[in-house]
Amino acid sequence: LLGLPDNFKMNRKLARTIERRQDIFTDPDAVTVDWATAETLAFATILADGVAVRLTGEDVERGTFSHRHAVLRDEATGAIHIPLQHIPQAQAAFEVRNSPLSEAGTIGFEYGYSIQAPERLVVWEAQYGDFINTAQAVIDEYVTSGNAKWELKSSLVLLLPHGYEGQGPDHSTGRLERFLQLAAETNIRIANASTAAQYYHLLRRQAALLLTDPLPLIVMTPKSLLRNPKVFSSLRDLSEGQWQPVIDDRQAAIDRAAVRRIILCSGKIYIDMISDARRAERADIALVRVEQLYPLETETLSEVIASYPHATEVVWLQEEPANAGAWESIQQRLQRLLDGILPLRLIARPRRASPAEGSMGMHIQHQTTLIDRAYELLQEVTRT
Asked: How far apart are CA 158 and CA 160, in angstroms?
């Protein structure tokens, strides 16, 4: 994957990026595998397993955030080199193509492609998750309901860059709430992976189920986390791990008896929480990641919650406004799971008509408020 043709002259800045990926092979336990490298390794192993991969999307060859670099170009000649087309272990073809900003037509085509070639892993990536808006008719009419209406089996994967970064209302959200509203009868899979290894295993699981349990997969992928060391994984995490729909708190030597507040969350907000200095101080708070939002692994989640015997409340924490994100879908499921034993409450932005703020200053203020509320003292709960 890191080899180049003879006399291939790559951009110097990009060459340094590619060279740094050599470091991941020096120690299998070193946490050095970033998001893009995990994706490339997932595709490589899928090809080695004999499953063809078709990757299309808006600026997908380079990656909107200049992270993927699936296609390399010679500065002098313009010649193209695609590493995933040159690995000797590959038993199937790899195709990567940029698609136009015509989401409805493009996703309709990729959906049809996945039906006509069910043995291939077909992946489409939006430039920003919000851009899925203009394909909503295709999502409603075909992707989420085609199996129920016509028994059309699709394993189309949609990668939707998602996460509140202060970039405004059209560059923040992949409209997770809409997919969850359309989720029923196990018609799709919806995930928000928080580590490179989780993403690796998610892609491999999708490829493994192409012919035995085909379902569209919606992935809320990150933006600022692509290079954040807090989502990096080790090679051992990739080679020996597996997909985890729910991840319990990983604090070293966590005292489960001391936990009073169980915070359930998904995606970037978890990274914001563990990046806060109060993380190490608050032994009374457990952070639990819900990586698979649908189908929700209620049995696993129930076991995790029950492992904190003295918890007094469960909180769902999200970046999105209260009328968006996962809350309105997951609320009833969590209440049934808790069965009145523990109270459930929400920490989120207020209900809003716009999905995000248009001001970086307001974004920072609101994001800080969310983290403060999640770490606030539990005096009121203790008195109760």
From this structure: 6
Give the residue from 290, 284, 289 showing the smallest Cα distance to 310.
284
* Distance of alpha carbon 327 from alpha carbon 265, whole angstroms: 10
User: Tokens standing for 83?
Assistant: 């590493």
Full DSSP string of 254-266: --GGG--EEEEE-
Closest by Cα among 237, 233, 228, 304 to 271: 228
Q: Mind listing the pLDDT tens digit for each residue in 162-220?
A: 999 999 999 999 999 999 999 999 999 999 999 999 999 999 999 999 999 999 999 99
> Of 201, 233, 198, which Cα lies nearest the Cα of 31?
233
Where would I find the H helices in the chain? 12-20, 35-48, 103-116, 136-138, 146-150, 176-182, 196-208, 235-240, 268-274, 298-306, 327-338, 360-375, 379-383
Q: Is 43 helix (H, G, I), strand (E, B) or coil?
A: helix
């459930």: which residue's tokens?
A: 344
Structure tokens at 195: 């580590």
**Contact indicator for 55, 70 with CB cutoff of 8 Å:** yes
pTM of the entire predicted model: 0.95
